[in-house]
């Protein structure tokens, strides 16, 4: 489990394209400290498994299903990525419960800078809008954010200078894809209410 608090801005150092998968090598001095084979690291909000680890770099395999459901397929050598290790039991939950299971991809629609923050508008895939509410939580490229405004096919978030400086959202421009994970609690509530409704 993750919390959506990005630990560092890493970099893709190698991409190997396989028949039905990709192998990425990524640099991240913070998240690789003490890393072992089989550990999980979230890359732009996608939970990946460490296959190999050497120095400040680690390798992870990404299967076709993940490439199809996320924006990892557009990564290239030099791409910057948000990195986070799983939260430890008993640690502070700084963001919200993040599984690292992407629900879909959105696209940056527009950015509106102001003196102390920036409003970013992001498209919302059909089927996900029912899970997104004003002042609720959403994960964008692995970043736990609060929804400012929620529309039928978009939402907005307000980014503070720290988020802009230390994550990929400070770099992405209109047209760029982002990974989205909605609040898992909303999905469980929907399932429970649906089950109750079907048994009445």
TrEMBL record:
It holds the Pfam family Lum_binding. Pathway: Cofactor biosynthesis; riboflavin biosynthesis; riboflavin from 2-hydroxy-3-oxobutyl phosphate and 5-amino-6-(D-ribitylamino)uracil: step 2/2. Keywords: Repeat, Riboflavin biosynthesis, Transferase. GO terms for molecular function: riboflavin synthase activity. It is an enzyme of class 2 (transferase). Residues 1-96, 97-193 form the Lumazine-binding domain. Lumazine-binding repeats lie at residues 1-96, 97-193. It catalyses: 2 6,7-dimethyl-8-(1-D-ribityl)lumazine + H(+) = 5-amino-6-(D-ribitylamino)uracil + riboflavin. PANTHER family: RIBOFLAVIN SYNTHASE, RIBOFLAVIN SYNTHASE ALPHA CHAIN. This is Riboflavin synthase. It comes from Streptomyces griseicoloratus.
């Amino acid at each position: 489990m993750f919390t959506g608090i990005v630990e560092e801005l890493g970099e893709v150092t190698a991409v190997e394209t396989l028949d039905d998968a990709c192998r990425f090598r990524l640099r991240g001095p913070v998240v690789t400290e003490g890393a072992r084979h089989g550990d999980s690291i979230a890359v732009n909000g996608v939970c990946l498994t460490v296959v190999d680890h050497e120095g400040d770099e680690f390798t992870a395999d990404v299967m076709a299903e993940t490439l199809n459901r996320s924006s990892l397929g557009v990564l290239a050598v030099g791409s910057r990525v948000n990195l986070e290790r799983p939260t430890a039991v008993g640690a502070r939950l700084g963001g919200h419960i993040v599984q690292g299971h992407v629900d879909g991809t959105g696209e940056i629609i527009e950015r509106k800078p102001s003196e102390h923050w920036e409003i970013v508008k992001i498209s919302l895939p059909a089927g996900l809008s029912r899970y997104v509410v004003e002042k609720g939580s959403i994960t964008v490229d692995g970043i736990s954010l609060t929804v400012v405004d929620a529309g039928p096919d978009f939402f907005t978030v307000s980014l503070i200078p720290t988020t802009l400086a230390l994550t990929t959202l400070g770099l992405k421009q209109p047209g760029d894809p982002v990974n989205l994970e909605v609040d898992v609690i909303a999905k469980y509530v929907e399932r429970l209410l649906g089950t109750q409704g079907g048994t009445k």
